[in-house]
């Protein structure tokens, strides 16, 4: 295990009715003038929109609103939010929605405290040092942004989809009521579950030795998702299954499962180019890319894929490592298919003709992607090729 620091101060309020505490929590964490940031009409239909306003007003907290966040959140709305916060003297940002809303809020929070272009953080030109405090009410279990340091934004002018992170971006509080996820369509539920599982896989597939504790934590979260996801697909109103998935989503990305080990992140970064170009649901894109990545790296570095097969999918050992690992990958693909996720480019409307462009944007100023296996341009192209054709 490698040396690490870990700082995760987010206050979590979990369970039925937790959203009623939002005004009190904003007040507790210093908010006096709030940006109420959200997506579309789902929070209006659920009544959450009115609840938030009522709770803020009950605490005498002033607020301004900015809706319109889309999946794969865009830079244009971030710029609008930064300008609004500065003009209105906002001192706290309340994100109400899924990971896209929270990521957009974090970008606004960092941009408000920076004299330059907020995109400098996402292009690697600057590091985030300060941010306006952020609180969240989560409505989709998927991205894990409610407990993480990270934010991913798509630049509308350049088409790049990039991430940035800092401890100062961890939300001050996050309200998690699983009831708000019960109305999600099965496809969105499954895409969120896939995102959660691949957040774990990015940490699990590591060459760092002697990390048994985090290996076992990763495996526990993966097995929970394997158990609970089919239950909520079958019965969307299953509160207990929804609750387990919601907490798993947080654990998958606040990095408690990733400390002390070199992480990979190739699947996420390869998928980012796919969803930036085609506006694909992130979890669905990961369902296409992650198994293709697994099949490609199998012949180069099978070790952790064998463990994945044995411990996560309960595969009986085969005559060699490669065949054992392949059975695990196949079990994962069957699981994804059974919950309604796509596995090919064709299913998400992508075309292999764009593989060279996506690879170029992915690598941009670097020679390789990933750590479990360091991928060069020709390797990434082969992963896209497999995702498009099913041929390695």
Could you please describe the fold and organization of this structure?
The protein is an alpha/beta fold. The protein has 16 helices and eight strands. A hairpin with a 6-residue loop joins strand 6 and strand 7 (161-165).
Helix and strand succession? EHEHHEHEHHEEEEHHHHHHHHHH
Strand content: 5-15%
- Which residue ranges are poorly predicted, with pLDDT under 50 across at least 5 consecutive positions? none
Radius of gyration: 20 Å
Please state the average pLDDT score.
97
Salient structural properties:
8 strands, two-stranded antiparallel ribbon, six-stranded parallel β-sheet, single chain, alpha/beta, 392 residues
Strand and helix map with partners:
Layout: E1 11-14, H1 22-28, E2 33-38, H2 42-46, H3 48-58, E3 62-66, H4 75-88, E4 92-97, H5 99-111, H6 119-123, E5 134-138, E6 150-154, E7 161-165, E8 173-176, H7 186-204, H8 212-234, H9 239-253, H10 266-278, H11 282-298, H12 303-312, H13 321-338, H14 345-348, H15 355-363, H16 377-389
Parallel strand pairs: 1-8, 2-3, 2-4, 4-5, 5-8
Antiparallel strand pairs: 6-7
